[in-house]
Design brief:
about 700 residues, alpha+beta, Beta-Lactamase, 4 domains, six-stranded antiparallel beta sheet, five-stranded antiparallel beta sheet, 21 helices, elongated
Length: about 700
């Protein structure tokens, strides 16, 4: 430890009435012997050390009072040497009043009284106490001086009085340069108002402050930010006298870095877990892109955008670039962590933007690798923005770092995830790049699924619509109206069909069917069954016979099954014959009557093979309404099908006199809400008298 150098002080400076703690701890006894070796003075500490009171000791020969007979000659010899002017210090055995022998450390010296007589002064202390204090002082001094932890002592004025080598090394100054200076002068990070307040609080209350983290720089390494663990303890003696503070400072920069990296690793893992839950909840392409930017902002970026190659949306993801080497992107989603004009810098959602071959976005998809720009200047921002206005918005927002990551799924580059930092002061680093690649990889598969789903859905819809008939027209006294609604998902589209067929004579065939299964295959099978139905209907077959032939055809179509209801309305006879192959019963609404289900004997679906079909005949009074439908209209996953059937029957009750188009709308408004299955609805009403013969 380094002692404070001597300084000139005014008279009286440093004088205090408080006792010294060290002398109290040693309990130094004072004994004065006259020229004959008799006790002339006896302190209170001597009474405690040797057991004799002053009254008992005064005037007695010290050798006879305190020394065993075998040691008296040596004691007298030492006394004579001291009286002769020598100083003797050492350990001598002393006899206590209780008869025990005590080892006592002495420091003996001669004194002269006013008359010139030579006296002997002995200062004595218990050897055990002296050795313990010596050991404690040596131990504390060596520990502090050799400790790798910076240790210093502050006076009550909060200035250093002593420092060890480790503290001087941390501060980057020689030990002597620290003495007399405040902590803030040595290390600016310790000079804050909050730190000064805590030092004063420890000095006043005695409550230590342990492991307070402080960050900053010192003269030892002025270019590097360091982190220290700082602790403060009050120093006081056994009497309670406060004489300063002890300060310990330990460099924990590496530990802090490891802890920060662990926190960042946990945060990255949390982002990935969040992504696995939040991305890909639907097969909607734009919603999936929106989920991706919502996960990226604000934990990874302040601004994020997802752009997909326009060619990928058209089904040609391998066509990354155009003839000029650039790429066309369609913006799918953009998000910001806070309200900012910078969001206008992203391409408007749904619009197409073309970027040249040198743009970061184009390079990302062309090279199939992330492009990270830790620091971007104004020129770089202008180069990566679509125009000057977008660049200005980004610059005004304070963009300083950029990261573009390719969206790659199943070996194809679909687009990019663009990330910007404006508020977050930290530039994108390798860890951020790794995290963005993980997010992009997970999201790209979901985006690709949504892309394929959308393409399949459009294909199924196109096929379905091409196979369904045009809007049917009336046939004599029979008026019809139809509605078809595709399912919400591509995989559910394709199985339902309807048809209105003019037959020989004054007859009309009505058909509604539903192929079991879904997707393009179901639509293709539906098309074959529809064509077969139209062909068989041209032969003027009874409904049951027509279904029997359809059953054989369906059985030959690779284990395909379908439900179907076929009705032949003979308008001249005002009669309708209906047969069903496992289909839901039609609903009959008589003029001014309640709707009721047509009771048709249950039969197996088409494709089972060899099952006979029954026929029921109905008389058609003027104004009678018949409703044919598929199960998508009345079936829901969260309710029994009977509930949907009864709801349909109630909606049709009393509608015999309403316009058919209006009735169709009422039924769909009441029952169809983005169903999980196709919906086909066919309404037919016998209106008027048969034509004249």
């Amino acid at each position: 430890m380094t002692a404070q150098p001597h300084q000139d002080r005014p008279p009286g400076a440093g004088i205090t009435a408080a006792p010294g703690g060290l002398l109290d701890l040693l309990k130094v006894a004072a004994v004065v012997l006259d020229p004959s070796g008799r006790v002339a003075l006896w302190s209170a500490e001597a009474e405690e050390l040797f057991g004799y009171t002053a009254e008992e000791a005064m005037g007695l020969p010290a050798a006879r009072l305190m020394v065993a007979p075998e040691n008296r000659s040596l004691a007298i010899e030492l006394f004579d040497r001291v009286r002769a002017g020598a100083i003797w210090a050492g350990v001598f055995p002393v006899r206590h009043k209780d008869g025990s022998e005590r080892q006592v450390e002495f420091r003996n010296m001669s004194l002269l009284d006013r008359s010139g007589n030579v006296l002997a002064l002995g200062l004595a202390a218990d050897v055990g106490t002296v050795r313990r204090v010596e050991t404690d002082m040596a131990l504390s001094d060596r520990l502090v001086e050799q400790s790798p932890v910076g240790v210093g002592v502050l006076g009550v004025d909060l200035r250093f009085t002593r420092v060890n080598g480790a503290l001087a090394e941390i501060a980057g100054l020689p030990p002597a340069a620290l003495v007399g200076r405040t902590p803030g002068e040595v290390m600016p990070a310790l000079g804050t108002r909050r730190m000064k307040s805590r030092l004063r609080q420890v000095l006043d209350t005695g409550t230590p402050v342990i492991d307070q983290r402080v960050a900053g720089r010192t003269a030892a390494d002025p270019e590097t930010d360091r982190v220290w663990s700082v602790s403060h303890y009050r120093l006081d003696d056994s009497t309670g006298r406060v004489f300063g503070l002890a300060v310990s400072i330990m460099d924990v920069s590496e530990r802090h870095r490891i802890a920060a990296e662990a926190i960042e690793a946990r945060e990255r893992l949390a982002v990935l877990v969040d992504a696995s839950v939040r991305i890909g909840t639907t097969l909607d392409l734009q919603q999936t892109a929106r989920e991706l930017v919502d996960v990226a902002v604000p934990r990874l970026a302040d601004l994020a955008a997802v752009d997909v190659l326009d060619a990928a949306l058209g089904g040609t993801a391998s066509a990354l670039t155009s003839s000029d080497g650039g790429s066309s992107f369609r913006a799918l989603a953009v998000a910001s962590s806070y309200p900012t004009e910078a969001i206008q810098a992203a391409d408007p959602v749904g619009e197409i933007a073309h970027y040249g071959p040198s743009r970061a976005l184009t390079r990302t998809v062309r090279e199939a690798r992330p492009i990270r720009l830790p620091r971007v200047d104004a020129a770089m921002v202008r180069h990566m923005s679509r125009d000057e206005h977008a660049a200005g918005a980004l610059l005004d927002a304070g963009v300083h770092s950029y990261l573009a990551t390719p969206l790659i799924a199943r070996g194809e580059v679909l687009g990019t995830l663009s990330l910007y930092r404006t508020v977050n002061p930290r530039p994108f680093d390798e860890q951020d790049e790794s995290l963005s690649c993980e997010l992009a990889a997970r999201a790209a598969v979901c985006i690709d699924n949504a892309r394929i789903y959308g393409r399949e859905r459009e294909t199924a819809l196109t096929l379905q619509r091409s196979l369904l008939p045009e809007e049917p027209v009336g046939h004599g006294a029979l008026r019809t109206a139809v509605r078809y609604r595709p399912a919400a998902g591509a995989s559910e589209i394709g199985g339902d069909w309807f048809d209105v067929l003019p037959l020989v004579g004054d007859k009309v065939g009505l058909v509604v069917g539903d192929v079991m299964g879904s997707g393009v295959r179901a639509a293709a099978i539906m098309g074959q069954l529809r064509i077969a139905t139209r062909t068989l209907a041209g032969l003027d077959l009874p409904p049951a016979d027509l279904l029997s032939h359809l059953d054989e055809i369906a059985a030959a179509l690779s284990d395909s099954f379908a439900t179907c209801v076929y009705a032949v309305c003979d308008l001249s006879r005002r009669r309708c014959e209906i047969s069903s192959a496992g289909h839901l019963p039609p609903i009959l609404v008589p003029p001014d009557g309640a709707a009721a289900f047509v009771d048709i004997p249950t039969a197996a679906p088409l494709g089972v093979g060899g099952v006979p079909f029954s026929t029921v005949a109905l008389d058609l009074a003027e104004g009678t309404l018949l409703a044919f439908y598929t199960d998508g209209l009345v079936e829901r996953r969260d309710q029994a099908i009977d509930t949907g059937l009864q709801a349909l029957r109630q909606l049709l009750t009393g509608t015999a006199g309403q316009p058919l188009e209006e009735t169709c709308d009422v039924v769909l408004d009441g029952l169809f809400h983005g169903a999980d299955d196709d919906v086909a609805l066919l309404l037919a009403r016998f209106d008027g008298s048969p034509p004249a013969a």
